[in-house]
Amino acid sequence: MPDPAATLASVRVERPADGVVVLHVSGELDTSSADELARPLKEHLVENVRGVVVDLGGVRFLGSAGLESLVVGNQRADSLGVALVLVATTRATVRPIQATGLDAVFTVVGSVEEALARF
C-alpha cells in the first residue's frame, strides 16, 4: 500500500545552474507529510551549494510542521552559508508565513525567476 504522506506532498528537484537547486513543492505540508520537504532540504543544503530555492507555488496547505521544516532548513542554510529563498505567492503559503512572523526570518519572493536572480 502506498505511503499516504507521499500522496499529500511531493517535491520535484531542478538544478538550473551550477550550485543552485530549486525544490518545487506541491500538495499539503502537515504533520504527516512535512518530511517530504524536510528530506530534500537536508539533502540539498550542503556546503558546495550556493543557493536553494523552495518554490511553494503548488502548496495547498502549509501547516505548523511544514513551517518547522522550513525553519530547520533555514537554520541549516545559515550554518552552511547557503542562501535559502522561498517563493510564496498564494494565500495558502503567504498567510501562515506572515501570521507566524516568519516573513521577517525568511527571504520570500514572488517567483522562481526572482529567486534565481539572487544567485
TrEMBL record:
PROSITE patterns: STAS. It comes from the Bacteria. Transmembrane segments: none annotated. Residues 18-119 form the STAS domain. InterPro entries: Anti-sigma_ant, STAS_dom, STAS_dom_sf. It holds the Pfam family STAS. Belongs to the anti-sigma-factor antagonist family. This is Anti-sigma factor antagonist. It comes from Saccharothrix longispora.
